[in-house]
Amino acid sequence: MLKGKLSLVTGSTSGIGLGLAHALAAQGSDLIINGFGDAAQIEAIRSELAQTHGVRVLFEGADLSRVEEIESLMARCAAHGGIDILVNNAGIQHTSLVESFPVDRWNAIIALNLTAAFHTTRLAIPGMKARNWGRILNIASAHGLVASVEKSAYVAAKHGIVGLTKVVALETAQTGITCNAICPGWVLTPLVQKQINVRAAERGISDEEAKALLVGEKQPSKEFVTTEQLGGLATFLCSSHADQVRGVAWAMDGGWTAQ
């Protein structure tokens, strides 16, 4: 379905981003992956994606909290033919009450979770317009639709991503470009596992008990969303069937935001 397309997936060396990279590559899209990690491990991920799906896979290690690195990244992407599918997924988390939230952590979360998506988007749109085709997928969160305590920066950034999605969708409404947000609930990623570990340690309970508590507090299904499920939604949004899906914040959250 996506043969001949080039996808940039930020934050794709683990978790949701890696799952989305696999889903897009399975549909024939060439990939540019991005993220942090051990060089040998990243090369193994890149090689596995390429060999499993028979597509071209490149790695770009740009630090997306730095505007100049984003601009260099997007220039290199243009040299490879330009980005057809942009998946803004990179993100970090920190939890604290507002009055004690570290200012440097606030700035870092806003920079990576929100501002980076603005920069990649503004730089991808001209090429997409020239080809009159493009897909921009912003990985928001259930926290882009509702709030939780001690997550002020993350919630603010994810609400911002949903708003940015709507504006870009309106500005590109008469083109072949679509922009939508995916809002996952709890997905068992390394980022979420850290929260589970903290909860287990604080309460003196097992990892499995901590998982059940975490999911049960928010998600009526009491089951984690999987990266494969998110990948299925992403590939649908990249298909011609979704040509008129524009500016949507699509929840996949086990009923979290239905409450």
General description of the model:
The protein is globular. The mean pLDDT is 96. Helix 1 runs parallel beside helix 2, helix 1 packs across helix 8 and helix 3 runs parallel beside helix 4. It is an alpha/beta fold.
Question: TL;DR?
Answer:
This protein is of the alpha/beta class and 259 residues long. Helices cover 49% and strands 14% of the residues. It contains eight helices and seven strands, in the order E-H-E-H-E-H-E-H-E-H-E-H-H-H-E.
The CATH class assignment of the largest domain is Alpha Beta
| Largest sheet entry | 7 strands, parallel
| Fraction of residues in helix | 40-55%
Contiguous helical run count: 8
Relevant terms:
Rossmann fold; 259 residues
Secondary-structure blueprint of this entry?
Layout: E1 6-9, H1 15-26, E2 30-34, H2 39-53, E3 57-60, H3 67-79, E4 85-88, H4 103-131, E5 134-139, H5 152-171, E6 177-184, H6 190-203, H7 207-218, H8 227-237, E7 249-252
